[in-house]
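Re: your question about TetR/AcrR family transcriptional regulator

S., sorry for the slow reply, the queue was backed up all week. Below is exactly what I fed in.
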Amino acid sequence: MSRKSAILAAATDLFAEKGFNETCTAEIAARAGVAQGTLFYHFKSKEGMLLEVFADVMGAYLHGQEQALQGAGDGRAALEEMLRFHFRFLQDNSRHLLVLIRDFPCHLLREDGPRRSQVREQLLAMIALLRTCLERGAHDGSLRVKDAHTTALLLRGLLSGLTRQQLLSPLDVPDLGEEAVAFCLEALRPDGLPAPLAP
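Result:
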């Protein structure tokens, strides 16, 4: 493992254990077995380490979603595999995701924040992959989709909410991956009937 990788691994572990704000760079350097100068040689700041974790996690997630989309036949099969991948990824990367969801600095998302565009591009890429999958399903008749973009936003919200619930809820929340997959596929089943409108 390279020094940079060791620093990132140590930072992620400490952020997960103590929280981003409560972790100091001296602790990260000690856990990684490097001098603080080495830490700042690879990263300008503690925030820079968190942004690197974000980039790595998002890169791996998007790559997995792209593979799921390309490897499946029709839109329904692609959606099923993309949803299943999400929950596998959550299980395999729970510490990283906990850090990002719980500790990602809000100021990075401000309109005038220098990193807002980087974060926004990654989030838009997730929506675009879902939209592509839904458009495929609508075209091949395997999914019932009225508006692919809106449906992609709804699916992303469901996945984000379940991820937050599983990682942060004070309740004992079970793994709901299979139930979520079944729910989404049933909701978009082409022969499904729309729910009746409220009076």
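The chain has two domains: 1-43, 46-187. The radius of gyration is 19 Å.

Happy to talk it through on Thursday.
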